[in-house]
From TrEMBL:
Disulfide bonds join C175-C191. It comes from Derxia gummosa DSM 723. This is Amine dehydrogenase large subunit. InterPro entries: Metamine_DH_Hvc (IPR009451), Quino_amine_DH_bsu (IPR011044), WD40/YVTN_repeat-like_dom_sf (IPR015943). GO terms for cellular component: periplasmic space. One of its GO terms (molecular function) is aliphatic amine dehydrogenase activity. Keywords: Disulfide bond, Electron transport, Oxidoreductase, Periplasm, Signal, Transport.
Length: 384
């Protein structure tokens, strides 16, 4: 009898609970997607992946608030248009991941909505490489894209963005990297014999024979980094030992305008190191360079423990800011700029640059481990 009464009590309890639940109307949670990212300056950081989808993370330059991301394929690379409204990405989509056919594409992304506007098929020769700024460029008028290829033979694909198709391939034997001309359609490329070669390209994809600069570096004794910054008509290349080369590639033949070593007179064996090793701020005519001490042959990828602010007018190091193992840096275009530093462990640090304190860098915000591998970024717009 006791067992029966217990069962009846349990049943009544369940019925009472169900009645209580039924009395409360269930309201499902409503999810939404923002149509546009929040306004303000943006920091774009590539998280390159060799095992799955790469992505471009978009953060606020003001405080590193996460705004969203743009998805792309394996071994992705990217750049941002001059007006900061469009991002262009390249990547591959392998059918079987480890072997077999693949599709290489150039994708146009709308920055405001972080959506893909269109996709253009490009040559499967596209270099599947670590992400460097010199592997994807736009022409000076941004009507053409220039894509580095490797088979492993080196060449550059020319993509007509208005027509939405690849119109030509320029062989660049013995040379690597794409540095768009400051005017017209064409590019320069860095060659193993110590020169810079310029190719002029026609609107139909045909091209003229290359014209080389004089030899300005020795790949065996003091090679130059592939990353270069543009200052007006000049490209700024840095060598492994700290030589700065200013090369005008606006004319028919690239001209070496200046060379000097900004590190040799400073004790400690300081050398540049990393991937995106320098960042140019035109508003102050200052080049920021990531540096490490006790440099030696083979240390050119060592992360920076200091960022030096180099005044290009006076050719002097204005300030040496202590940083924590940065492998890449990039800077906004403002008079009081913001510098963003990336580590090999995918940490991101924001620094405020004070022009009144000789361009000292003050850390203000930090994000840890934002992805797999981050070595390429751009900062756009006005920063607070």
């Amino acid at each position: 009898m006791k067992t029966v009464l217990t069962a009846i009590a349990a049943a009544i309890g369940i019925m009472t609970a169900n009645a209580a639940f039924a009395a409360d109307e269930f309201v499902p949670e409503t999810l939404s997607v923002e149509k546009e990212i929040k306004p303000g300056p943006n920091a774009f950081i590539l998280d390159q992946n060799w095992r799955g989808a790469s992505r471009v993370n978009v953060f606020s330059t003001d405080d590193l608030t996460n705004k969203g991301l743009m998805s792309l394929g394996l071994t992705g690379n990217f750049l941002v248009s001059k007006d900061a409204k469009t991002a262009w990405t390249i990547s591959v989509f392998p059918k079987r991941i480890v072997h077999g056919p693949l599709e290489a594409v150039l994708q146009e992304h709308d920055v405001k909505t972080l959506t893909i506007r269109r996709e253009i098929a490009i040559s499967e020769k596209m270099a599947q490489s670590l992400a460097y700024s010199s592997l994807l460029k736009l022409s000076a008028d941004e009507k053409y894209a220039l894509v580095q290829n490797a088979t492993p033979a080196s060449s550059v694909s020319v993509v007509d963005l208005a027509a939405g198709k690849e119109i030509g391939e320029v062989p660049t034997p013995g040379c690597w990297g794409v540095y768009a001309l400051p005017e017209g359609l064409g590019f320069s490329t860095l060659c193993g014999d110590g020169t810079l070669a310029t190719f002029r390209v026609n609107a139909n994809g045909s091209y003229a024979a290359p014209v080389k600069s004089e030899k300005f570096f020795d790949a065996d004794t003091d090679a130059v980094f592939m990353h270069a910054e543009r200052a007006g008509k000049e490209l700024l290349f840095i060598s492994f030992t700290g030589n700065l080369f200013r090369i005008d590639n606006s004319g028919a033949q690239p001209k070496v305008k200046e060379k000097y070593n900004f590190a040799a007179a400073i004790p400690g064996g300081w050398r540049p190191g990393g991937y995106q090793i320098s960042a140019y701020n035109a508003a102050n005519n200052v080049l920021f360079v990531g540096m490490h001490p006790e440099g030696h042959e083979g240390s050119h990828k060592e992360p920076a423990s200091e960022v030096w602010a180099l005044d290009l007018k006076t050719k002097t190091v204005q300030y040496r800011s202590a940083v924590e193992k940065l492998s890449s840096i990039f800077v906004s275009a403002d008079k009081a700029p913001v510098l963003i530093g990336l580590s090999e462990t995918a940490d991101v640090t924001r620094y405020e640059i004070d022009p009144t304190a000789r361009y000292a860098a003050k850390p203000t915000h930090k994000l840890e481990k934002i992805g797999e591998y981050t070595q390429l970024g751009y900062a756009t717009g006005e920063a607070k």
